[in-house]
Amino acid sequence: MTELAIIMMGAVLTNNFVLVKFLGICPFLGVSKKLDSAIGMSLAVIFVMVLATAVTHPIYMGLLAGFGIEYLQTIVFILVIAALVQLVEIAMKKYMPALHKGLGVYLPLITTNCAVLGVCILNIDESYTFIQSIVNSFGAGVGFMLAMVMFAGVRQRIETNDFPIAFKGVPSTLVAASIVSLSFMGFAGVIDGIFGL
Amino acid sequence: MQFVLPVGIVVGIGLLSGVMLTVAAKFMAVEVDETAANISEILPGANCGACGYAGCEDYANALAADHSVPTNLCTPGGDKVAMAISELLGVEFEGAQAKVAIVKCSGSREKTSYCMDYQGYQNCAANKLFYRGRSTCEMACLGFGDCVKVCDYGAIYIENGIAVVNREKCVGCGACAKVCPNKLIEIVPDNMRVVVGCSSIDKGSVTKNICSIGCIACKLCEKSCKFDAIHVIDNHAVIDYTKCTNCTLCAKVCPTKVIHVYPKKKAK
User: Does the predicted model carry a pTM greater than 0.90?
Assistant: First the structure.
């Protein structure tokens, strides 16, 4: 149980996908203008990450490792995740229109997002078990949400400020992102402290 | 022959996914409302929100789903769009009431003054927060042009310290009215030509001291109006545009000449 808690906390804070591992930067910069869309996008990412891990982990263990063709993992994972997310979107549109309205618009955006693919591959690299992988993916998703929501707040503050023209728009956003990322570097070692490792 | 297995596996997974998606798309297809898509094409796509819906698409969906929704809510589109939508939906065309913004302040630089030398962040909203704004009159136009910045049509500009609407360009979307911290801008039907250029809430005697054109709440306009369309509310005259007939009598009797009459609209 402690082990799962460590993986979870690690994925959220010390190994935050966006701010420490620099995966999924494009939705992080693109969809963080408003808090509403940031939350919607994050929920979609959590959902897709867990789902993708739940499917790719058995495929890797059973099919790829079984036949000794691990080198195909990237291509197979992209294929499977893209098809899966598309399928979920179609089903959601039909049976859960309300959820589709809130979450669905973000689904196609993250079908082959590097954060989603990254979490699947990292689970394999760390040789996590199935349960550990699911927990790690969920944690990564929550970490993504934390970064998105925090950064949406930062950006709303940036919007109302008067910058030199050269800094307006993207440059100020990137500077802000780097400072937020810097603050997350401060979490290194926190997990070890909490669990007395 | 060792490449057969990997290729086979990838092709297999690909085929399986493809078949799955095809079947899913067939069985779980959702009928897309074509009327809504067609209406979206007619609408200007400015997403200004003047219709009261969250953007053009939302309005199109509402129109497609419920035929009792008025077809003439789109002010930027005007009669042309309303007619096209009515034709598409087969409902009666009621004619769009084109709208225009009016500014209810006339306190230009020679009429009134500033009570501070404001050096802070140069916009109306910030200035308003810094002790109710730089103008001597609490309700005066602050003149930093927050309204100018939000206007997509270049229809409002700052002249001599106050906002002025170009009635030819204004489409009545109301973006400027939303940002004005003093709520000086109102959206009215564009055939209305009489505008009270003051929103002062001070007593007449106070207004007279700080602004040479401000409404002094003398009620002459109220007495002169034959249609019960103008009343002094909160120490300034307010026109009820549902009753006003553009007779301009109030403008003639106004002692401070704060009731302006705009020229008749040119036929487009």
Answer: no
